[in-house]
Amino acid sequence: MDLRPISTLPTDDERAAVDAVLGAPGVVPQALREARGRRHLLLPGLHAIQDRCGWVSAGALGYLCERLHVPPAEAYGVASFYALFALSARPPTALHVCDDLACHAAGAPALIATLTQRLGPAGETRAGATWHPSPCLGLCERAPAAMLTVAGAAPRATAWGPVDAAACVDAVARGEAPTPAPALIPQRGRAAYPERLLARVGVVDPTSLDAYRAAGGYAALRLALERGPAFVLREVTDSGLVGRGGAAFPTGRKWAAVAAQAGRPKYLVCNADESEPGTFKDRVLMEEDPFALIEAMTIAGTTVGAEQGFLYLRGEYPLARARLTAALAAARERGLLGDDVMGRGVRFDIELRLGAGAYICGEETALFASLEGFRGEPRTKPPFPVEAGLFGRPTVVNNVETLVNVLGIVRDGAAAYRALGTAGSPGTRLFCVSGKVARPGLFELPFGVTLRALLELAGADDPAAVLLGGAAGTFVGRDDLDLPLTFEDTRAAGATLGSGVVLVLDRTVALGPVLARIAQFFRDESCGQCVPCRVGTVRQEELITRLARGKPHGTVATERALLAELGQCMRDASICGLGQTASSAIESAVARLKVFADEVTP
Amino acid sequence: MIRLPIYPAEPRRRPTDGPVRDVALTIDGAAVRVPEGATVLDACAAAGIEVPTLCFAANLTPVNACRICVVELEGARTLVPSCSRTVEAGMVVRTDSPRVRTARKLVLELLGSSVDLSATPHVARWIERYDAHPARFGPAAAPAAAGARDAAAPGHHHVGDGATAATVAQPAKVDNDLFVRDYGKCILCYKCVEACGDDAQHTYAIAVAGRGFDARISTELATPLPDSACVFCGNCVNACPTGALVFTREFELRRDGQWDEARQQETTTVCPYCGVGCAITLRTQDNQVVRVTSPLDSSVTGGNLCVKGRFGWQYVGDRPPPDTK
Ligand SMILES: Cc1cc2nc3c(=O)[nH]c(=O)nc-3n(C[C@H](O)[C@H](O)[C@H](O)COP(=O)(O)O)c2cc1C
Ligand code: SF4
Ligand code: SF4
Ligand code: SF4
Ligand code: FES
Ligand code: FES
């Protein structure tokens, strides 16, 4: 492969940003050798340029390609895949304003209209700043939310909420956002549900390793290293823990499969890409209890025989990034990560990697592609990640909440874990409650509590429509409030818990535009690889937009039939879960809530 | 600074070692035996069942992106792409069930309503077979202006009123004398990218850029081909199943309504230039060379040629020599 470079030269700043990630360049033959096998640094390199300069110029892209020996066309294909990278000149200050579901219910459309007046149309540069609408920022309990990014030698990013137009205009003008408030845990003092995952949240200082240890931290890792992998595997399997990322796969089975693989290296990946609209549980855990995730990843890695873990964090979570970066450094310094974990002769370390604005990168195989420096396009399964995952090696990939559950399982045993929840869904579950409720926030309930009890706790007076599981989930209505929140009961009811989203809409919220926003989301986030999803999500958006405007092609009934056929094709023939679930929430609203049931009178 | 662990290079695909056994499976009720490692598509062919394919080619790594080849596999939650799914003993496959027919019909409708398929072989027949009606999604939206699709930002799109169906229609890119990129006909099958990259040419001049419906085949920064890494081997043109990549002569004839397969013939010969001796097939119309290909099963070329064999035939007629730069 003999590459033709981009002829534009980088600026000094761009060169410095890339060199800060890759190290200073060597002499040419050595540089070539060192470039081989470093493709995975493409995304970190693009982030460094974006953070330093506010956009990725031709010269900067060319320099990065030269350093990594990546063909420019491929690097361009990667850079243009991610929403957080700008490929045309953009000012250093950018405001991303959420107009997704919870924020929509909290007045985002009016906010966007006001900002269009006061800051100019989205994407336009005024006074050294620009703004964009954004999909869910994972701050739904504080809707409406926004994120400010300021590029430079010391780049800053803050995501916060609730915002109003004045706060947005002020933040853009000053290049400075308010300090985000701590997490909301409304169940405290209201209900006697035991807190397992939330126990330290808002209680123990998340910036202090000593405080974490004083609160019982690292007891589980000590025990795991003393008793060995077989013990941990047995407890995790016996606990019946299933994944919290959405697919509900038994964690013990996954770990055992990778532990049984002979070859090295193996990898552990923590999926912290949390981008499902309405989801914010992983963010709260990482911001408020970062050491717990690091300890849990260390247990997982040492159990399955991985020496390297990757924490793939959503790019829009600046506070979680700062807390995790500090926590990783502290753990490394104290020998809790590294070549000799806890002095027991095992090696394990964790690298933090950032996503760049692509919901699809939460799909596990797309996540691998992204980590490897490719476009976040899902891969066909089989082969499954436990055989051929990251870099083609056996890989465990788990959600943040799944992993944090492991601490209690190892410390207290599988039997104690199963004391809460149901036989089919043991333990507790985090629920991200947002929308039209008096007390939005993160709730931890034993599996089996009913939706009604959760909504009462959150103060939902008029739950006309409840979206369970996010944009890829299902709507339920008033008739479904006695649904016990377990995997088995939701499945039997044709619904899903998904990522734990409980988004409440009351009668004041028109469902047509909400469904249109969901359809827009899938069109924006489809990776574009397969026809059913790439074109299907476009046709679905067009169809829902027509129905929401009361302007169907033909009758509403023919449009509903077309939607059903489209949904079947996307569900049956798409490559990955995105396309397979892209019509799920919309079809459930049509079926259960009778949206678009009436013919429009012309 | 981030620590730099050393990783193995990306894995390459399937080694086939050891003796090859036969695998027995059932397709549409009939017993079929094929060698292990064969795909379900191979097995369907062995059973004499025609399965439509668009993104599959025997000499390229399957990307299973178009999904027109899906079949129903007993026990699987979703349909599976036959072009890339390896056979397993005891598989029970259906190629014409209602679910398969609906999926194929919709794939044809989705493509037919967004892409100009007029130069894609077989599609008209499949549209009839699956009773597809691309017009169900409404009238086509206005074509994009030149360069507009190249500038689309991921994660954002203009939200319309749903009255018209978005398409990839756009002016053809004519930036060199040898071939035209008419991306209004592109179904994004990835074949050109594979032919330019890992599977044949290793030049990596083009890749998929953008995301979702805005995904497109592009050089870096949408630079014109002569300024890119392209060496004008034409292997991408050879791989393109839709006529989106088309030799300039053929593009002009089709544009002018002069393309007439009844007046054409194919002559297989050997490239006159170097000592490698690549097999080439000259397609001629009225004694003028209109297209040069190489047989996919040629042991010398595997279907690929270089710029000389592919484009250096002007001297055969009386056209002026090519000017690549
Ligand atoms: C489109 C899509 C997006 C996803 N996003 C996430 C995500 O943000 N976080 C997550 O943990 N899992 C996500 N998943 C599920 C992952 O593919 C995978 O199943 C999960 O990370 C496995 O971890 P678990 O077993 O602990 O749940 C997503 C799946 C799809 C199809
Ligand atoms: S279903 Fe959608 S997101 Fe998934 S691979 Fe296909 S196009 Fe990409
Ligand atoms: S002509 Fe050859 S080098 Fe140029 S884009 Fe096509 S395959 Fe690549
Ligand atoms: S240009 Fe042709 S070969 Fe390339 S992706 Fe489009 S249809 Fe396929
Ligand atoms: S932060 Fe706006 S919907 Fe989640
Ligand atoms: S031919 Fe199999 S997916 Fe395209």
In short:
The complex is a heterodimer of chains A (602) and B (325). Chain A contains 26 helices and 13 strands.
How is this structure best described in words?
The complex is a heterodimer of chains A (602) and B (325). Chain A is an alpha/beta fold. Chain A has helices spanning 12-22, 28-35, 42-53, 58-68, 72-79, 101-105, 108-119, 165-174, 209-214, 219-227, 229-239, 251-259, 281-288, 290-304, 318-333, 364-371, 400-412, 414-418, 451-458, 487-492, 511-525, 531-534, 536-548, 556-573, 577-581, 584-592, and strands spanning 93-98, 129-134, 146-150, 156-160, 267-272, 308-313, 349-354, 395-399, 428-435, 441-446, 465-468, 474-477, 501-505. Chain A folds into five domains: 12-79, no CATH class; 93-174, Glutaredoxin; 209-418, Rossmann fold, CATH 3.40.50; 428-505, Roll (Ubiquitin-like (UB roll)), CATH 3.10.20.600; 511-592, de novo design (two linked rop proteins), CATH 1.20.1440. A five-stranded mixed beta sheet of chain A has the order 10-9-13-11-12. In chain A, strands 2-1-3-4 form a four-stranded mixed beta sheet, with helices on one face. Chain A has a four-stranded parallel beta sheet with strand order 7-6-5-8, sandwiched between helices. In chain A, α1 (12-22) runs antiparallel to α3, α1 packs parallel to α4 (58-68) and α11 (229-239) runs antiparallel to α12. The relative contact order of chain A is 0.10. Chain B has two domains: 20-138, Ubiquitin-like (UB roll) (Roll), CATH 3.10.20.740; 165-317, Alpha-Beta Plaits. Chain B is built from seven helices and twelve strands. The longest helix of chain B has 17 residues, at 98-114. Mean pLDDT of chain B is 92; it is low at 1-15. The interface between A and B is large, with 83 and 72 residues. One iron/sulfur cluster binds next to α4 and α5 of chain B.
